Amino acid sequence: MSKETFIQVSDFKLFTKLIGKKNGKPTIVMEAGYGDYSKGWNSIVSEVASLTEVLVYDRAGLGKSESSSNPRTSLEMVKELKELLNKLTITPPYLLVGHSFGGVNARLYASTYPDDVSGLILVDSTPADYRERFLPTMSEVFQKAYDKQFIVEGNYDEFGESLNQLKNCKVKLSVPLIVLSAGKKDHYSDESQNLWNQLQEEILQYSSNSELIIAENSAHYIQDDEPSIVIGAINRLLEIS
What we know:
single chain, alpha/beta, 8-stranded mixed β-sheet, about 20% strand, globular
């Protein structure tokens, strides 16, 4: 079962796609990375939807969704997602799956609405201190390419503000958290890869019930390179929720 709709949120419409049946388990809500949209989950969404109901959607200004006049910061996106879920009448709890920058949104959603969330899976998600601790260790070419990408969804300052919002969030969760770290990142030296895995491991402090899995053969899109790792993590958290 698949249902595509446009839902009015604030002053714009968001494209949503609801797939599968709930089966007494939490609905899975999937958050794509920066500038990415629902298609970022195509490699796993049909298999995940055989387990329970899944919501994928395009954030404002991406994919088929309309643009928003609201700031493109994580807390704003979290409010928009909350309104979207209410309007779709999807009852919590939700299992949140966030890739890259979508992991920042997923963490802030879980902190802002802890009663809504049964578990959290972060797929190679952006660490809060990425700019201070990781970016300076990369080549100048890499850093310039990184800076230039912020034209699709929020600018460089708004992205920085989102990371600050995450840093300022002191809520510690008790829900299960699985952190998936890409173990074979493109253009990373051994030192960079080790630092990346270390930053991912530090995200475990966010919940009292957490574990790290390194996807040894994956670049940034673990869901494409090793889909079974993401599907396996989702399945495990569904079984205990």
